[in-house]
Amino acid sequence: MSKRALVVIADGTEEIEAVIVIDVLRRATVDVCVASCQLTQELQIKASRGVKLVADSHIDECVDYSFDLIVLPGGMPGAEHLRDCPTLTTMLTCQQKAERWIAAICAAPAVVLSAHNLIANAKATCHPAFLQQLQAKQVVSDQAVVVDEKHALITSQGPGTAMIFALKLVEILMGEKKAQEVGQPMVLLS
Questions:
Q1: pTM
Q2: Amino acid 136: pLDDT
Q3: What is the CA radius of gyration of the chain?
């Protein structure tokens, strides 16, 4: 059975984190939907460094679908836009209640998940600049990627950890062998 992932983006999203996650998941044959969280319903966003990205759909069109994984890239003010999207908040709450995976990187664990009390009992990390805002039971500052299996949560620190984060998402969804198959041709894994 094919795995499905939702990657959400908005103006100010960190493009490295979004694009690497989308690319690596698709290399692993995960069915990835990229959804815009723009209030204007626009599919095109302007990322944090000015790169324009075009989503597959708007978040409002995704509410009736089930995803094995929802991924929140960081970047500012992108994470704030994700935090302020009521549809995404509802979907994240349902995802957590269903014990399905949520992944967040950079500012998103603190700015989005902490703001909506979706991380309070978990072990997590985030970008060092946001560690003080991270309202997690156990804050981990010395690991690039933190997996909390009990809470179906994967967090990471920032753009420099995006490839490791993306491969960990593949491993969680598809297994270690698939992560190695995807990573080796990219000269990441031996």
A1: 0.97
A2: 87
A3: 15
* Residue 27 phi, psi (nearest 5): -60, -30
Q: What are phi and psi of 72, to 5 degrees?
A: -115, 105
Amino acid in position 2: S
Number of domains into which the chain is organized:
1
| CATH number of domain containing 8 | 3.40.50.880
The residue range of the domain holding 11 is 4-186
| CB hemisphere CA count around 63 (13 angstroms) | 10
What gap in Å lies between CA 112 and CA 119, rounded to an integer? 9
Alpha helices in 43-186 (DSSP H): 78-83, 86-97, 108, 162-174, 176-183
Q: What pLDDT score was predicted for residue 190?
A: 47
**189 pLDDT above the threshold of 60:** no
Residue ranges with strand state E in the chain: 4-9, 31-36, 44-46, 52-54, 57-58, 69-72, 101-105, 123-124, 138-139, 145-148, 153-156
The yes-or-no answer on residue 62 being catalytic is: no
DSSP, res 177: H
41-72 pLDDT per residue, tens: 999 999 999 999 999 999 999 999 999 999 99
Question: Of 33, 85, 106, 126, which residue is the catalytic one?
Answer: 106
pLDDT tens sequence across 75-113: 999 999 999 999 999 999 999 999 999 999 999 999 999
